TrEMBL record:
Superkingdom classification of source: Eukaryota
Any single Gene Ontology cellular-component annotation: nucleus
Keywords: Metal-binding, Nucleus, Zinc, Zinc-finger
Transmembrane segments: none
Protein name listed in UniProt: Protein FAR1-RELATED SEQUENCE
Cellular compartments annotated: Nucleus
Length: 681
């Protein structure tokens, strides 16, 4: 059976190009996984960009014990790629852990699709289905992964791998017909519905898709029967009835939670036109972190022909947090205008300082009219996601060099230098008459980083788009979601988003400050006038940044405008503060949004938390130590020693509250004064 719920399911990336030409579309095939990558950020990381599981597959290298992955999904994708190239499929067999466990799910067994015994079917199923022989034959091939948390970072590690199969493996032609690899992607689903509306038959739709992809007949990832089933399922949707049920679902949610907020409009036929909603915790989160908002309107709810937009923010850990979402009838300026108005009303009238959006001219016009006090910027990751579609076919083998030059130029500090090198790049690649380059050039001020310096972006130029935003769209919002269930499904997706925030223990922005302090030691300071300084790297003979430090108010400004952009003092300002013997950051330069007491997920240390954590840990110890006598004897001896030691410890609890106390790190970050005079290299 073909899987319709894989990947983004009912959501598909919008394909209309912002250049405005009707026949110009953005090729989204496979782009869902790339949307959250920010090449501008990755280019500045010495160890290079992080790799996806598919990129890690080199020369059919099998998994190995000790191999680690960022997530269990990444591990499963790696094993899936290996399996497909080697003639079999995999499935999840068993898992250990649950959402209530401190580690969540901490162990997974991934097995060959022919593992285990055939499952007996119920009598009703036997009557309904033809009697097919089970493919299961007790195959022992498997990969077992466990979650390992070290210094606040969780990784999934391969603890066992076996590639011993007791059956013949399939060739490349046979393996693609396995149910695990037969799927209709979100892009194909949208194309199929479009072609079906034009009156094309199933056979003609298959031929059209094969022609578009340059494939021979029979090489698509689905069959004509799969396509017929998909079209039949799509026809069963009653859009008008579903819309009415969506409103009722919002009303029911409002009855349960008084702080749940929603609003909608109807058209002249009394059908739902637009609807927006937000959950109780979102307004509180917006009060703390609503200075920077990401409005992602790049997805369509294609089965219902609606645009799906989500407002996200960033918390003090750099994790994505949900503010609200909207379903719009279309992507016209008046629809976006209503969306922006409704968002401000949902957030009790508070406007954000900065809003980042996709490169959309209709949304740009709506922002100019409705949010004049808010800085509007086009998110650089959305710009980057379009480069391949715009320039790869045109430039061919020169495309990679073009992207490299694009990233380098976008990281320049000076607007003058940016414009000079940009114009030179356009000439070098012969793009003077290209409409997409013209579009980008005309909107420099909206997306080019030299023009956005001084615009508060909450550190997004450092960290890029949080991966959890991609997970939000990939997770619970699948093709089985009916419109009436959308409010609940979005709630599930928010829970997953919040879980990522709760698991985050590394203070990314604290690490950024720490890095700036360390890097500041490489800079020399020259006093140019009273309370004015030139700060330059010790290896540079010219250039540098101007820093003004006014006492006694501790007012400090740097020409790089890093604090204005990220809310974190730059290395140049920190170098001057160190020179002037400041041992803590001035209070006004440690923003409330970065402090621990602003966290949406305070770490509990009360009796209830400790008891539950120890019970969960004891459960794991029992499971692991009961496997063999050697393990049991080892654990029993050490547990006896541990118990005796614990009983000798004092019972006074220094932190009796249920909320972790705020450390001195949040009250002020220590600065190490340098034993150097002004002008010292």
């Amino acid at each position: 059976m073909t899987k319709f719920s894989s990947r983004n399911g009912c959501l598909t990336l919008r394909r209309q190009c912002p250049c405005g030409v009707d026949h110009c579309i953005i090729r989204n095939e496979g782009d869902e996984d790339d949307l959250s990558l920010d090449p501008l950020v990755e280019a500045s990381i010495p160890h290079g960009p992080s790799q996806t599981a598919s990129e890690l597959m080199i020369d059919d290298v099998p998994p190995y014990v000790g191999q680690s992955f960022r997530t269990d999904d990444e591990a499963q994708e790696y094993y899936t790629n290996f399996a497909r190239k080697n003639g079999f499929a995999i499935r999840r067999e068993r898992s250990k852990g649950n959402p209530a466990h401190p580690l969540g799910v901490y162990k997974r067994e991934l097995v060959c699709h022919r593992a285990g015994q055939s499952l007996p079917r119920k009598t009703a199923e036997l009557k309904r289905q033809r009697n097919k022989k089970s493919s299961r034959c007790k195959c022992d091939a498997q990969m077992i992964i466990k979650k390992n948390v070290s210094k606040g970072v969780s990784r999934w590690v391969v603890v066992h791998f076996s590639n011993m199969h007791n059956h013949e493996l399939l060739d490349s032609e046979e393996v693609r017909h396995l149910p695990a690899y037969r799927n209709i992607s979100s892009v194909d689903r949208e194309n199929i519905l479009t072609l079906a509306k034009r009156g094309l038959t199933v056979n003609n739709i298959m031929r059209a898709l094969e022609s578009e992809k340059g494939l021979k007949p029979g090489q698509l990832t689905f069959t004509e029967r799969d396509l017929r089933n998909f079209l039949q399922a799509s026809k069963s949707i009653n859009k008008e009835n579903e819309e009415a049920k969506l409103v009722k679902a919002c009303e029911a949610m409002k009855d349960k939670h008084l702080d749940f907020r929603f609003e909608f409009t109807v058209d002249e036929n009394d059908r739902i036109e637009h609807i927006a909603w937000s959950y109780p915790d979102s307004v509180q989160a917006y009060r703390l972190f609503g200075d920077v908002v990401i409005f992602d309107s790049s997805y369509n709810l294609y089965a219902y022909e609606r645009l799906f937009g989500v407002w996200f923010g960033l918390d003090n850990y750099g994790n994505a947090i949900f503010f609200g979402c909207v379903l719009l009838q279309d992507a016209k300026p008046h629809s976006f205008k209503w969306a922006l108005q409704s968002f401000v009303r949902l957030m009790k009238g508070k406007f954000p300082r900065t809003m980042l959006t996709d490169l959309d001219m209709g949304l740009k016009d709506a922002m100019m009219n409705e949010m004049q006090s808010t800085k509007h910027a086009f998110s650089i990751w959305h710009v980057m996601s379009k480069l391949s579609s715009w320039f790869s076919p045109l430039l061919g083998s020169q495309y990679e060099k073009f992207v490299s030059d694009f990233v380098r130029i976008c990281n320049l500090d000076s607007m003058v230098e940016f414009e000079h090198q940009w114009n030179q790049m356009v000439v070098d690649f012969g793009l003077e008459s290209d409409r997409h380059i013209t579009l980008l050039s005309y909107h420099w001020h909206y997306w080019a980083l030299p023009y956005l310096r001084g615009c508060f972006l909450g550190g997004l130029t450092r960290s890029g788009l949080p991966p959890s935003i991609k997970s939000f769209f990939k997770g619970s919002l699948n093709s089985q979601t009916r419109l009436k269930d959308f409010v609940e499904q979005v709630g599930f997706a928010i829970d997953i988003l919040n879980q990522a925030g709760e698991e985050a223990t590394l203070r990314q922005n604290y690490q950024n400050v720490k890095r700036e302090i360390i890097e500041s030691m490489q800079f020399a300071v020259y006093e140019t006038a009273r309370e004015n300084y030139l700060v330059r790297h010790r290896l540079m003979m010219d250039g540098g940044h101007l820093v003004r430090c006014v006492q006694p108010n501790d007012e400090i400004q740097c020409s790089c405008q890093e604090f204005e952009s990220s809310g974190i003092l730059c290395r140049h300002a920190l170098r001057v503060l160190s020179l002037k013997n400041h041992f803590v950051l001035p209070d006004g330069y440690l923003l409330m949004r970065w402090r621990r007491d602003s966290s949406l997920f305070p770490k509990s240390t009360g009796y209830k938390f400790r008891s539950q954590a120890l019970r969960s840990l004891a459960s794991i110890v029992i499971q692991e130590s009961s496997v063999s006598k050697d393990r049991f004897d080892y654990v029993q001896w050490h547990m006896s020693k541990l118990l005796a030691h614990v009983r000798d410890m004092p019972v006074v609890d220094e932190t009796p509250s249920d909320v972790e106390p705020i450390s001195s790190v949040d009250a002020g970050l220590s600065l190490v004064p340098l034993r150097a005079n002004a002008g010292e290299g």
